[in-house]
Amino acid sequence: MRRKETAVTPRVRHVAAPTLLGLVLLAAWLLLSKGLPAYVLPNPGSVVVKLWRGLTTRALLAPLGVTLVEAAAGCLAGAAVALPLAILLHRSRWADSATRPFLGATQAIPAIALAPLLVLWVGYGLVPIALLCALIVFFPILVAAASGLRHVDHEVVDAARMDGASSVQRLLHIELPLSLPWIYAGLRNGFTLSVTGAVVGEMVMGGAGLGTVLVVQRDQLDTAGMVATIVLLAVVASVAYLALVALERRSATVSSLVRES
User: Fold this and answer.
1) Could you give the dihedral angle defined by the CA atoms of residues 106, 109, 114 and 117, in that order, rounded to the nearest 10 degrees?
2) What are the angstrom distances between the C-alpha of 66 and each of 9, 76, 104, 198?
3) Among 70, 71, 76, 149, which residue is least crowded by beta carbons within 10 Å?
4) In angstroms, rounded to a whole number, what is the distance separating the alpha carbons of residues 21 and 110?
5) Could you report the per-residue pLDDT of 141-163, keeping only the tens digit for each?
6) How much of the chain is in helix, strand and coil states, percent to nearest 5?
7) Count of CB atoms situated within 10 Å of the CB of 134
8) Alpha-carbon torsion (75, 77, 78, 79), positive or negative
């Protein structure tokens, strides 16, 4: 019986803890909204009504699809550059030493400041927003992947080398599987940042996504609509986050199997 309780308790905690916190935050929101004007902080009921209307009339669904496409394209583009570069930095000390100062300098440049330049270079539409998202997610994914490769057990790699495994075989069958939890963590954070980048990019460069919807709602002083749009973004980002957490846990199982073998 004790073993069963120990196994069930974490699952209950993972559900009960965020539920209780959500109820506390909802109650605090309800209390604060009673003492503030609706244009400052709308009550939860009006936000739910706005969200329901936006979903049923597809006024929010179509822009949401555009934003998700931009965010996914930017995240994939950033990962397509960051992951091979992480492998290069892991394998080459010269490349690591040469690029490290420049990679740090890139983080001092606000990505949003590049939006006007992207408009001049690429134009308007999906491409510049996806590029902005790629620039935002590039560094977190690179750091996570490089850290994962760096923390791979050297004894396992050396044993494979002694058994005659080539450099490519060690990378594909040992180093990458063992670093998958780190890579998934980078992708998880990267996609969340990519959604934010897509919304901010739309607010600056225009488009047909939720960032543009927020701009229209702001100009109309539709505070309840803005909060409803933000809630929708938060829910979608949370779902994507949890999906990547599930993949991360599965990759941890794969890593343990590699270590055991």
Assistant:
1) -80
2) 40, 15, 31, 9
3) 76
4) 33
5) 998 898 888 888 877 777 777 77
6) 85, 0, 15
7) 24
8) positive
Q: How many CA atoms lie within 13 A of 135 on its CB side?
A: 21
Is the pLDDT at 4 greater than 60? The verdict is no
Please give the Cα distance from 104 to 53 (Å, whole number): 45
| Strand, helix or coil for residue 220 | coil
Write the CB contacts of 201 (distance below 8 Å, at least 6 apart in sequence).
Answer: 70, 112, 115, 128, 129, 132, 133, 207, 211
| Residue at 167: amino acid letter | S
Tell me the C-alpha distance between 56 and 239, whole Å.
20
Q: Which of 238, 234, 232, 230 shows the shortest CA–CA distance to 41? A: 230
Class of CATH domain 42-260: mainly alpha
Which range among 10-19, 68-77, 90-99, 145-154 has the greatest average pLDDT?
Answer: 68-77
pLDDT (tens digit per residue) in 216-232? 999 998 999 999 999 99
As a whole number, mean pLDDT of residues 66-74 equals 93
H helix and E strand count, the chain: 11, 0
CA distance 89 to 98: 9
What is the enclosing helix (H) or strand (E) of 60? none
Domain ranges of the chain: 1-35, 42-260
